[in-house]
Structure formats: structure tokens, C-alpha cells
What does this fold into?
Amino acid sequence: MIVFVSGGARSGKSEVAEQCVIKAAKGGSCYYIATADVFDEEMAARVERHKASRNARWITLEAPLAIDAALAQIPEGAAVLLDCLTLWASQVRYASELTDAQGKCLLENAVHAARSQHQHLVLVSNDLNEDLLPNDEETWRYLGFLQGLHRWLAAEADSVLEVVGGLGIEWKRKETLC
It folds into this structure.
């Protein structure tokens, strides 16, 4: 089961996604693939706040880029949260040697691997179209890359949720999970 959760900044996406994973885990362990690379105090505080909100049943794997390798460490049938695709996409573009096409291929391979392992994978990403429009070409290129990933993921996912004010609105459902 693949679930794509999107919404504006600070909309409650992570909390909604965590509840999806907890439900899918059915009392078992929950896996958290963290894509954040901590570069400053603000990000460190956000990461600590997220960690503190989760209990001991959560197993965290740090994967700023190698999401495929992180998923390969997780058992078949497990419930997994990947948070967040927005940060991961920025690292593909600005902190790796990968092209956009190679980054998209890495995401596609990870999602297909999760599906073949019968993992319940919930992916979180920011809908940056809700923010102010950028005024520079590079930001437009990044948004184009991210939105291309979103479009592919929305088509591939079994469920697509948009989070507004902490409420998940399901736009697509092949099977009830959240």
C-alpha cells in the first residue's frame, strides 16, 4: 500500500501520516525514514520535536538521499513513514551528483521495492504551490522537479491525502488505510 500525503507548510501532514502508519502497523513496529539533513539550530530543533512526539515503537532510519537503501533494511510487510519528499528532492538537486531524471528513478525504484515487499509506505511532501510564487529561475526549476515527483507519486499511490488544518482529505483511494 502506497499513500501520498501532501499539504501546506505546518498543516499537520506529519501527524496525519504518522496515524496512517500506526494504523497500518497493527500494534507492531513503525519505521520512520527521515530525509532531513541537519544544517542549523532551527532544523535540529524541528528534528528533536518530531522525535519527541514519537514513542518507542518507532524505529528511525536517517536517509537524506538513499531512501532505497533505507527501505531495503525494513522487513517485508512493515509500516513505513518517509518524511519528507520535499527535503529529499532538494538534496537530490543540490547536495548530490544526481540529475533530476536519476532522482526520479531512485524514487520510482524505492516505491516499487516497497510495493514488492508488501510494505505500507506513507510518503509526506509539502505542497509548495500554496506558498508565494518564486521570482527566480532556479526556484522554478526546483518546483518543476518536485511537482513532477508529486504527479508521478499521485498516479502511482493507492491513496492520496491532502492535509488542511490537521485534517486529511482523501482525493484518491484504492483501499482504506487512513
In short: The mean pLDDT is 90. The longest strand covers residues 120-126. The chain has one domain: 2-173.
